Amino acid sequence: MSNATEEVAQDQLRSFVERIERLEEEKKTISDDIKDVYAEAKGTGFDIKVLRKVISLRKQDANERQEQEAILDLYLQALGMMN
Amino acid sequence: MSNATEEVAQDQLRSFVERIERLEEEKKTISDDIKDVYAEAKGTGFDIKVLRKVISLRKQDANERQEQEAILDLYLQALGMMN
Amino acid sequence: MSNATEEVAQDQLRSFVERIERLEEEKKTISDDIKDVYAEAKGTGFDIKVLRKVISLRKQDANERQEQEAILDLYLQALGMMN
Amino acid sequence: MSNATEEVAQDQLRSFVERIERLEEEKKTISDDIKDVYAEAKGTGFDIKVLRKVISLRKQDANERQEQEAILDLYLQALGMMN
DNA sequence: TAGGGCTACTTCCATC
DNA sequence: GATGGAAGTAGCCCTA
């Protein structure tokens, strides 16, 4: 490989690394923002764990959720933990 | 709880949920962007797995510097050499 | 500190480190065993996620469980996600 | 599903749950033992925080050796020097 | 489907 | 004794 070609490859690599690291920083910022919102909600008296559950339920497809609950009921019944 | 109070709580909850969901969307966008950059790098001939490793090593180096300082502080404290 | 005293301290430290590392190995073995059981259950057709949920529910105090569910219901109602 | 089949499933589920719960008890015992050792070390005059750090550094060193080999393999592969 | 990285939960320690 | 913060652990998801 010629020096010129090597240099091009190096510059490209450098560029990719920088772009990725930049994006990962942004991602971290957002993650921190989310954490802040949860903290704020907690300060207002909401239960973080339950709030997380709400978010996750809304993300889940409604059908899938019902199915999960149905399976859970089934297992609990099998264990005699439900009336 | 009065109806008015309940309504306030509902509005707050709704607001928190919306803010979180908005931020998670943004986060997903960034994640997708990162994926795109890796794909582009692959198209240019770079090995994604190695590229990931490079990124992770650079992150580790940064962390490790902080870590080293933390250890030093810890030992100095343990030896009663810090206030 | 005399050499003898230092040596005692070193031996003690060494001993503590060894005892802890030994215990942590045992702990890891158990963790792996647990993972194996889940894998086996999966192979028999059980849904791991639900199985985990069952285990965790059984661990929770019954009262606490009801309370958590009550809070969740409350939130879901507030968001109009129930009936 | 026939009653007999259901019963088999129930027995299996029960068995899995019991095995997991048993193992988690053992795991908790070990965790408590570890806590005891730290407490004992503290009683002998050692700084728990520093002790934890020592343990974690020793673990890291071990991991890092493996990591270094993994990186080497990765690079060799990327350069087409491994099959 | 297995492995690794990321995220989240829990636990522990220190402070008030 | 409680609360907040940090660290270690475990679960989930995504990629290969």
From TrEMBL, chains A, B, C, D:
Residues 9-80 form the GapR-like DNA-binding domain. GO terms for molecular function: DNA binding. Belongs to the UPF0335 family. It comes from the Bacteria. HAMAP family: UPF0335 (MF_00797). Keywords: Coiled coil. Signal peptide: none annotated. This is UPF0335 protein SAMN05192530_105136. InterPro entries: GapR-like, GapR-like_DNA-bd. Residues 6-40 form a coiled coil.
